[in-house]
Amino acid sequence: KVIAVGDSYNDISMLKEAERGILFSPPENVVREFPELPVTHNYDELKKLIIETMK
Fold this sequence. Notes:
The structure is a single chain. By secondary structure, the chain is an alpha/beta fold. It has one domain: Rossmann fold (3-Layer(aba) Sandwich), CATH 3.40.50.1000. Helix content is 44%, strand content 20%. It is built from 3 helices and 3 strands, in the order βαβαβα. A 3-stranded parallel sheet has the order 1-2-3.
């Protein structure tokens, strides 16, 4: 599986192309504009989402 992690506008095309795109501590305007992408705010949340995706 392809998992991409990013935090801003320049990452959006990569996140949408991946099988699972994840926003990591993005600014609030990015969260509002791309509600379809899951958001994580720390490494523990990110790790959990990656592990869930790999199942």
